[in-house]
Design a protein that fits this description.
The structure holds two protein chains of two kinds. Chain A is an alpha+beta fold. Chain A is built from five helices and five strands, in the order E-H-E-E-E-H-H-E-H-H. In chain A, strand 2 and strand 3 form a beta hairpin. Chain B starts with 13 loop residues before the first helix and ends with a strand. In chain B, strand 3 and strand 4 form a beta hairpin. The chains are: A alpha+beta, B alpha+beta.
């Protein structure tokens, strides 16, 4: 059984943004900060009257920390439920209200993308869109059926 | 071939545009099932110009113990709404 926690460490992408969340939103106090010998920036926080510290670390030398994209990919891989962004522990399905905006998808497709799609998006064994289109055109006004 | 038919050049097949809208909702809620996607093609979508897909939830309802979300979905290009439609997503309740 765990009797006491001394210290938890999180590596983050944006140090100041994270610190301000812990201080301004959660009300923790900044205890100390320093930069380690290998160059990682460390900030220690604790709740008033508690011994346990949370260490927030920014160390770009060991690769990127979790970003939204990698978290999304992992979630998809494991089919884990999303967490409610309000942090109230509700299920995501309860957190989505009417009027909730879907994150936008912005994309510019090239002519090659479209050509590739038009030739590969069709079911195997089925003629490509262009082939069916030509077949239909050839059949126009005649009594044959293009499939 | 497209130009011969009086079109400005190469265009996106309708189902490719629909696939973009489907991708937007499945990126948003990977655990949801896209139960229905119905769209109206109001204009031609072309390659090489930015496409913006957006949408919002218009209705929530319970259906067979699952949560159904109805969303309006929109595909815009050059500031015009080229495709509008409705997507129905089914989310399991645990």
């Amino acid at each position: 059984m765990v009797k006491k926690l001394l210290h938890t460490r999180y590596r983050v992408h944006d140090l100041e943004k994270t610190i301000s969340f812990y201080k301004d939103v959660l009300g923790l106090q900044e205890v100390r900060r320093h930069t380690s010998g290998r160059g990682s920036q460390l900030v220690f926080l604790k709740a008033p009257g508690s011994d346990e510290e949370i260490e927030i670390c920014k160390f770009d030398g060991s690769g990127p920390s979790d970003d939204d994209e990698s978290a999304r990919r992992r979630r998809r891989a494991h089919r884990q439920p999303l967490h409610d962004p309000s942090g109230e522990g509700r299920e995501v399905s309860d957190a989505i209200e009417i009027g909730h905006e879907i994150p936008r998808l912005e994309i510019t497709l090239s002519g090659d993308d479209v050509r590739r799609y038009a030739t590969t998006a069709n079911m195997p064994g089925r003629a490509s869109t262009a082939t069916r289109w030509r077949a239909r055109k050839a059949c126009r006004g005649k009594s044959c059926r293009a499939t | 071939m497209a130009r011969k038919e009086g079109l400005p050049g190469q265009i996106l097949p309708g189902n490719m545009s629909m696939a973009l809208l489907a991708r937007m909702v499945s990126d948003w809620l990977p655990e949801a099932r896209l139960a229905k996607l119905g769209v109206t093609f109001r204009g031609i979508v072309v390659p090489a110009k930015p496409i913006v897909c957006s949408g919002f939830v218009t209705e929530r309802r319970d259906h067979d113990g699952k949560l159904e979300l109805e969303c309006d979905v929109i595909l815009e290009q050059s500031g015009e709404r080229r495709i509008t439609g409705v997507a129905v997503l089914e989310l399991p309740r645990s």
